[in-house]
Design a protein that fits this description.
The chain is mainly β. Helices cover about 5% and strands about 55% of the residues.
């Protein structure tokens, strides 16, 4: 059977505000802010990893553990503040913009750490029922992904961009 086992969903909203030109400064200001939420899940893909040599020496029935492929939820919130100033006497346009990253998170469910089954020495697949996956008898099959369960950018960062453009005037006779 062939099927598309990938699922992704993206949701977001963006708000934009621009002022009318401030005549005395020949400047226009704008502010935009966008927040988005996305989910990714590879429903039918599976990961297979060898069981530790120590577990095999200790008599483990499993030689390869099988896991659901990773899924994740991401949230981002970015804003931009910008101004465009025209200096007609010099023929310049100055653009200032600041991109601000306010929030970035990634969440991976703890269930991705637990094996959904395993292969024995004779390559027979043994499925582990969903309600038994956290059983201590299968703890040696647990992946060490706990450090990645929740990632959050620990600070707000920004980037300032400046661009200056010169008008080119041509006089035609």
């Amino acid at each position: 059977m062939i099927g598309n086992g990938l699922y992704s969903g993206d949701y977001g909203i963006e708000l934009i505000y621009s002022t009318v030109e401030i005549q005395k400064l020949a400047t226009r200001l704008s502010l935009s802010s966008a927040i988005s939420y996305s989910q990714f899940d590879s429903r039918y893909l599976q990961d297979m990893e060898p069981v530790s040599e120590q577990a095999i020496r200790d008599g483990s029935e499993a030689v390869f553990a099988v896991y659901n492929d990773k899924s994740s939820k991401n949230t981002t919130w970015n804003s931009t503040v910008s101004s465009i100033t025209h200096i007609p006497q010099l023929g310049f346009t100055v653009n200032l913009s600041m991109d601000i990253s306010l929030l970035q998170t990634r969440e991976t469910p703890a269930s991705d750490n637990r094996a959904i089954g395993y292969y024995t020495r004779d390559m027979t697949f043994i499925a582990i029922a969903a309600d038994q996956r956290s059983d201590p008898a299968y703890s040696y099959l647990k992946r060490d992904l706990e450090v990645n369960l929740k990632d959050k950018l620990p600070f707000i960062y920004s980037a300032l961009n400046v661009s200056i453009a010169k008008e080119i005037k041509k006089i035609f006779d």
